[in-house]
Design brief:
Strand order of the largest sheet: 3-2-1-4-6-5-7
Structural class: alpha/beta
Mean pLDDT: 85
Largest sheet: 7 strands, mixed
Number of helices: 9
Order of helices and strands: EHEHEHEHEHEHHEHH
Number of strands: 7
Low-confidence stretches: 1-16, 231-236
Helix content: 40-55%
Distance between the termini: 17 Å
Shape: globular
Strand content: 15-25%
Length: 241
């Protein structure tokens, strides 16, 4: 593993509750939005892991105000790398289930329990959030089109029939989290996870979630050009593998 991916442990302040899912929050320059996200998460969950992915703003200082675990990449490595760091950390601390949750306020904390229900009943190993089974607020037409093209590509590339490809809200059982290994450091990781679900024969389902867009999150989100780059990264990864 590249040395820059080694997490720096900063803080632990809450006792572990065995039945709590571990919430993994990858954060890069999210100081302006991270506080509101952690306010919601920390009211409900005891094990929240913030992975500061080499931020140059006050993301880490913001996280220090909350009862969370804080890990840090010294350099910006990408969301995929940050999630893998957080998931590996949670598994080393005996997490039974892991949830990935965006730092920017797009996700609703209430949806976590919707994702957890199929894991707890054994109906699925991985539960994927879907904004198209749920609802979106403020989704522009252009972004809607890019997302739908991503769904089509995933069905052809990974043979995984989903309604929402690049949704960062997902839940994994301990067994599934241990078998999924994210190697795409940046945004192609979302499609890579789906590819690995299919390759490893993991049981999966989708659950309806709500995604809220704002001007700030749209400005920071994926452009059409980035979508093309993601396709290229996935194809290159398939060839190298």
């Amino acid at each position: 593993m590249n040395a820059t991916l080694q997490p720096t442990f900063v803080q632990t302040v809450r006792p572990e509750l065995a039945d709590d899912p571990w919430i993994i929050v990858a954060a890069y320059n999210e100081a302006a939005r991270l506080g509101a996200t952690l306010d919601m998460l920390c009211r409900r969950y005891s094990n929240v892991v913030v992975v500061d992915d080499g931020s140059t703003d006050t993301t880490r200082q913001t996280a220090l105000h909350y009862p969370v675990w804080i890990l840090r990449h010294m350099l910006n490595c990408g969301q995929g790398a940050a999630l893998q760091t957080g998931i590996s950390f949670a598994l080393r601390h005996d997490a039974k289930n892991v949830v990935t949750f965006d730092a920017d306020g797009q996700h609703c904390v209430e949806d976590i329990e919707t994702l957890m229900e199929p894991l707890r009943t054994g109906r699925a190993d991985v539960v994927l959030g879907s904004r198209f089974l749920g609802r979106t607020e403020g989704l522009p037409l252009g972004r809607w089109l890019v997302l739908k093209l991503g769904v089509l590509f995933t069905r052809l590339f990974s043979n995984v029939r989903v309604t929402d490809t690049h949704n960062g809200l997902r839940a994994l059982s301990r067994a599934a989290a241990g078998r999924v290994c994210i190697q795409q450091n940046r945004m192609a990781h979302a499609s890579e996870i789906l590819d690995q679900i299919q390759a490893r024969g993991l049981k999966y389902c989708e659950a309806p979630v709500t995604i809220r867009y704002s001007h700030a999150t749209l400005a920071k989100g994926q452009s059409s050009w980035n979508a093309v780059r993601i396709v290229g990264q996935l194809l290159l990864g398939r060839v190298i593998r």
